[in-house]
Amino acid sequence: MVSSILPLTVSQALVQRKGKTLLGPVDLKISTTGCTIVMGPNGSGKTTLLRVLHGLERLSSGNTSWQVPVTDARTRQAFVFQTPIIMRRSVRENLAYPLMVHGMGKAEAYQTAQNWAERVGLADALDRPAPQLSGGERQKLALARALIRAPEIVFLDEPCANLDGRAIREIEAILKEAQEGGTRIVMSTHDVGQAKRLADDVVFLMHGRIIEEGSADQFFAGPSTPQATALLQGDIVE
Amino acid sequence: MGEIWEGLTAGFWLVITLDADLVEITLRSLYVTLTAVVIGSAIGLPFGAFLAIRRFRHRRATIAVLNALMGLPPVVVGLIVYLLLSRSGPFGVLGLLFTPTAMIIAQVIIITPLIASIAHQAIRDLWAEYHDLLISLSTTKRQRIKTLLWDGRRALITASLAGFGRGIGEVGAIMIVGGNIDNATRVLTTAIALETGKGDFALALGLGFVLIGLAIAVNLAIHTIGKTESEGKW
Predict the structure, then answer these.
(1) How far is CA B101 from CA B91, B94, B185, in A?
(2) How far is CA A143 from CA A104, A108, A120, A147, B157, in A?
(3) Which of B130, B136, B151 sits opposite A79 (nearest CB)?
(4) Is B132 near chain A, with CB under 8 Å?
(5) Which of B127, B131, B137, B153 best probes binding to A when mutated, by most A CB atoms within 10 angstroms?
(6) Global pTM?
(7) How far apart are CA B187 and CA B34, in angstroms?
(8) Which of A35, B78, B116, B180 could form a disulfide with B190 if both were Cys (CB 3.0 to 4.6 A apart)?
(9) Rounded-to-5 percentages of helix, strand, coil across chain B
(10) Which residue in chain B is spatially nearest to A145 when comparing CA positions?
């Protein structure tokens, strides 16, 4: 039995660049199950927080700790970027890439890639150059590539920004399926409706600090801060 | 004008009649330069990628020196290689002076910085694009370099072609280390220099046109094989 990498604990995490504080200090615990939605206005530190959790951002002080050594934890998580990073390869090769760099043979990796392409509706595009895909298709490809190794946790940085309703619905369906399969989800979004549909718990950020954190039911029923209340009412929050 | 026309005619007949000397020196030119390009690419492309992704002390200075070496004077390279390979030099015992191998060594020294520098520019841009993804996927440094070289291969073909262009037209270094010996180390550029010295401008021009045609043919062939500029490629 392989032990879980979760929960993830963040203690006094602070990110400063060129004398400016981008995040923190923040304390946060990501439990073993569910979907955490990170909300907040532009520049509040959502992306930085996700990058810190995933280990892409160097901390100025504080620390993050997994239940296993960090090198082990790194290979059991994934990240989906707001602007999908699409490799200059075919869709099949993009999907197979994470499998092959972690030791899977080409034939098996390609077969798994094909299965995933069918799951996310990209089966017809398998041999197309991935950079030629539409915005929605690119994000689905990035999501499938992140999920293909069955990570224990996946971080998503506004994966549905600039997508239309149909693409958003498809991506949410993939996320729900992944969550049912046991993948922990941590995702940032501006979309209150999407947060209500997906969240089990919510982290609300302002100016790099977590000002509200709790269960989704509690947050949406009665937020405890005026900024969160304003956001849920559709007011401009800055 | 007359001499250019005579040169064109001479070049045309040399090619049409498959002149034995022309074929021999053309093949030698190709052998020397293509071998140098293969070796230069094997060194320069991974080194360019390494410079793009690895942070180390004096990295900027290394890149500046590499860029400066793109303008390395071939005659100086030829002189240094000559001294190293001459009988009294440290590698004199190998007996390489005035052989095609010596010419290849000189060309490798001349073109490798050019290939590495262009590769570095191309890979740097691709690395900026792929950085977060490759870090996120916990790839090793070796896997990153391999990925960047593969996905950037079309830009890297240009780097190798630039090296080929510099090598095939080079005369100073290979004249010194090769000696322009008939049936041994004579190549198109040294033959052109010789014929010009003898005053046979028509033949020199003819050889020159063959050289230009050869450079264009090799570039076209590599672009065709590499499928650059093709519809649906990236």
Answers:
(1) 13, 11, 9
(2) 19, 20, 9, 6, 32
(3) B136
(4) yes
(5) B137
(6) 0.83
(7) 13
(8) B180
(9) 80, 0, 20
(10) B137
DSSP per-residue string spanning B6-64? HHHHHHHHHHHTT-HHHHHHHHHHHHHHHHHHHHHHHHHHHHHHHHHH---TTHHHHHH
Other beta carbons within 10 Å of B16: 8
- In this structure, what token pair is assigned to residue A174? 């993939």
How sure is the predictor about B227, in pLDDT bands with cuts at 50, 70 and 90?
A: low
Mean pLDDT over residues B131-140, rounded? 95
Q: What strands, in cross-sheet order, belong to the sheet with A77-80?
A: A77-80, A153-157, A184-188, A35-39, A201-206, A209-215
> Residue A120 in contact with residue A155, Cβ under 8 Å?
no
Distance CA A44, CA B156 (A): 41
Q: Please tell me the total number of residues recorded for chain B in this structure.
A: 234
The neighbouring-strand residues paired with A23 are A15
**Which tokens belong to B19?**
């002149």
Residues 6+ apart with CB under 8 A from A62: A10, A11, A12, A13, A14, A24, A25, A26
Interface check A116 vs B, CB under 8 A: no
Residue with tokens 């539409």, as numbered in its chain: A134
Across the interface, whether the CB atoms of B129 and A85 are under 8 A apart is answered yes
Mind giving me the DSSP string for A64-121? EE-SS-HHHHHTTEEEE-SS----SSBHHHHHHHHHHHTT--HHHHHHHHHHHHHHTT
Phi, psi angles (nearest 5°) of residue A38: -100, 120
The 10s digit of each residue's pLDDT in A164-175 is: 888 889 899 999
Q: Give, for B125, the enclosing helix (H) or strand (E).
A: helix B100-136
Residues 6+ apart with CB under 8 A from A6: A30, A31, A32, A66, A67, A152, A153, A184
A81 touches chain B (CB under 8 A): yes
| Separation of alpha carbons B175 and B78, rounded Å | 8
Contact B138 A54 (CB under 8 A): no
Amino acid at position A183, single letter: T
Distances (CA, A) of B70 to B105, B117, B151, B227: 16, 8, 25, 27
Return the pLDDT at B200.
84
For A88, phi and psi rounded to 5 degrees?
-80, 65
**Nearest CA to CA, how far is A227 from chain B (Å)?**
32
* 8 A C-beta contact, residue A11 and residue A65: yes
Contact status of A220 with chain B (Cβ, < 8 Å): no
Residue B229 has what pLDDT? 53
Q: Quote the tokens at residue A164.
A: 């239309």
Asked whether the beta carbons of residue B132 and residue A88 sit closer than 8 angstroms, the reply is: no
Coil, strand or helix at A27: strand
How far is Cα B171 from Cα B45, in angstroms, rounded to an integer? Answer: 24
